[in-house]
Amino acid sequence: MGEVVQMHFTTVDYVIFTVLLVASAGIGLFYAFSGGRQRTTQFLMADRSMSCLPVSLSLLATFQSAVAILGAPSEVYTFGTQYWFLGCSYFLGLLIPAHVFIPVFYRLRLSSTYEYLELRFNKMVRICGTVTFIFQMVLTGFDLWGAVLAMGLVCTLYTALGGLKAVIWTDVFQTVVMFAGQLAVIVVGSSQAGGIGEVWRKAVNGSRIAGLDLNPDPLERHTFWTLGVGGIFLMLALYGVNQAQVQRYLSSRTEREAVMSCYVVFPCQQIVLCLGCLMGLVMFARYGEDSPLKKGYCSQIYMVLYFVMDVFRDLPGLPGLFVACLFSGALSTISSAFNSLATVTMEDLIKPHFPSMTEAKATLLSKGLALAYGLVCLAMAYIASIMGSVLQAAFSIFGMVGGPLLGLFCLGMFFPWANSIGAMVGLVAGLAMAFWIGIGSFVMRISAPTPVPLLNTSALPLFDNITSTVMTAVVSTTTAKRRPTGVEALYSLSYMWYSAHNSTTVVVVGLIVSLLTGPMKEKELTPGTVYPVLGTLLFFLPERYKEKLCCVTPLAHKVTSYSYS
Predict the structure, then answer these.
(1) What is the CA radius of gyration of the chain?
(2) How far is CA 417 from the centre of its chain?
(3) What pLDDT, on a 0 to 100 scale, did the predictor assign at position 378?
(4) Which residues contact 34 (CB under 8 A, 6 or more apart)?
(5) For 50, which DSSP code?
(6) Which helix (H) or strand (E) holds 342?
(7) How far is 306 from 4, CA to CA, in rounded Å?
(8) Position 550 pLDDT exceeds 80
């Protein structure tokens, strides 16, 4: 595949590609050397001065990673447009973070989401949450990173020097590049196929246009329920409690701007999803059932790249734009990973032990951490590229960490009587369940006597390496002709339900253990750490019963903005 790409790359393509890297590095360097505030650790929070639009485009860029650009079209080409119903999960997947998680985090003036765990439970729970997150971020999502070493160095440079402000503004630039690249492919590809009407006709004839599948079976890979309901939990794990995303909300000037950025992301995500699906249909119109995969021209994950090089064969510059678009996706994902890893390490693991550290030293250390994580991730990328797909499958399993983390935050935020022992045991149970199902389903697929249909190795692309969803179709299952029973049925659970299943495990186990070990009383809670959802739902109960259930404490007052002396 490398040769095919090389064959079509002209000087113009290399120029476009280099311009993207130079522009990204330039933005980082500009923010590194402009303004005195970058010399404090607030550079990790962009001085909490960002407005709504750049924050929302940055949220989108992290979400729309390189795996998304390659994954969605490949998924639709192979399995049809059922995947589009994932868009239904965006409604609640963004409304709940906007009106539940953001107000709680913003009003507590946090720098790291895991600070919340200490305020609500204790330091031990916070450290466990932080370590789980670091484990997840460093180990997941290396599918395409072997190819991005030079780019990774650029990215490490601008993240380490420029902080979150540089990350957000380069994300904005990269989002524009990504949209341009995808649109170019769709327009040129559909015109070569004979127009969008012809593309649609071929897709209908090829049974690639899926209707509403209301089959409630949780073992089915994609149905309306797995995508529309299971997807909500994936969205919450990403947009509700993930450090890389929450850090962007907290960089907003006001709580209202943070909430607005959630609303602005929503239509953008729908556009991104539609573009991915359209590109898959254009691919189908071009190749039909006679795919380059069957001919052995390329592997599944590179199919979209092959298609792009094929479509743009006679158009110098456009392959460069698309590869720049891909690299943008990877850049934004990696840069947010570096920045959020530096923040949680600093806030959760270093500052508590060195309270007297000067601001100048702390800032230097933060920049050093961002650099160190960058180099560790590049080393991991190199190892992954050598060891190949087995390691990618193993790394994908580590992506299941997102579900249990979501469960841990929900346990603390919605259930006032949950205590720290319950939180710890719940998190361990959720992680154990996640790994049990993940490894079990992977082993079951490998040991299956019949050949499993080709699955999309980058399925569930829209979430990439920052949530449970990186548990891609490498370990997702297809329903066999014989319906699985017992433990097999658990292993055959649709990968879209992993996040919901694992977060529910944490909440249920956490509540049972909390009730057995002595639930927390209202006066023991840190004010503002519990969202009064139970009080709202149980409005019909008399006040004294509500008090017994710890359902009476309201949230803290709105913080209009942060001010620094």
Answers:
(1) 23
(2) 30
(3) 67
(4) none
(5) B
(6) helix 318-344
(7) 7
(8) no
Split at pLDDT 50, 70, 90, the class of 141 is very low
3-state secondary structure of 59: helix
500-526 residue pLDDT tens: 999 999 999 999 999 999 888 878 888
- Write out pLDDT tens, residues 66-87: 666 777 888 888 888 988 998 9
CA angle 496, 502, 374 (to 5 degrees): 80
Q: What is the 3-state secondary structure (H, E, C) of 200-233?
A: HHHHHHCCCCCCCCCCCCCCCCCCHHHHHCHHHH
How far is the C-alpha of 2 from the C-alpha of 24, rounded, in Å?
25
Q: What span, in angstroms and rounded, lies between the C-alpha atoms of 178 and 104?
A: 33
Domain 17-385 has CATH 3.40.800.20: no
Does residue 252 sit in helix, strand or coil? strand
Tokens of 262: 């959630």
- Distance, in Å, from the CA atom of 88 to the CA atom of 72, rounded to the nearest integer, reads 16
Closest C-alpha among 247, 94, 241, 104 to residue 558: 104
What's the one-letter identity of residue 387?
M
Give the H or E element holding residue 17.
helix 11-33
Nearest to 332 by CA among 469, 452, 174: 174
Backbone angles phi and psi of 471, in degrees to 5: -65, 75
Residues 6+ apart with CB under 8 A from 345: 130, 134, 369, 373
Q: What angle do helix axes 303-311 and 255-287 make, rounded to 10 degrees?
A: 70
| Predicted local distance difference test score (pLDDT) of residue 474 | 35
**b/e burial code for range 119-152 (CB count within 10 A of at least 16 → b):** bbbeeebbbbbbebbbebbbbbbbbbbbbbeebb
Q: Around 412, how many Cα atoms within 13 Å sit in the side-chain half-sphere?
A: 32
Helix (H) or strand (E) holding 175, with range, is: helix 149-192
Q: Has residue 277 got a pLDDT over 50?
A: yes
Instruction: Return the bridge partners of 252, or none.
Output: 50
> How far is the C-alpha of 262 from the C-alpha of 55, rounded, in Å?
9
DSSP single-letter state for residue 465: G
Could you tell me which residues come within 8 angstroms of residue 492 by beta carbon, excluding any fewer than 6 positions away? 219, 441, 444, 477, 479, 480, 484
Torsion of CA 183, 188, 189, 195, to 10 degrees: 100
Cβ-based neighbours of 453, under 8 Å, separated by 6 or more: 478
Identity of the amino acid at 213: D
Q: Rounded to whole angstroms, how far apart are CA atoms 136 and 263? A: 27
Residue 409: C-alpha distances to residues 118, 346, 401, 413 (Å): 11, 20, 13, 6
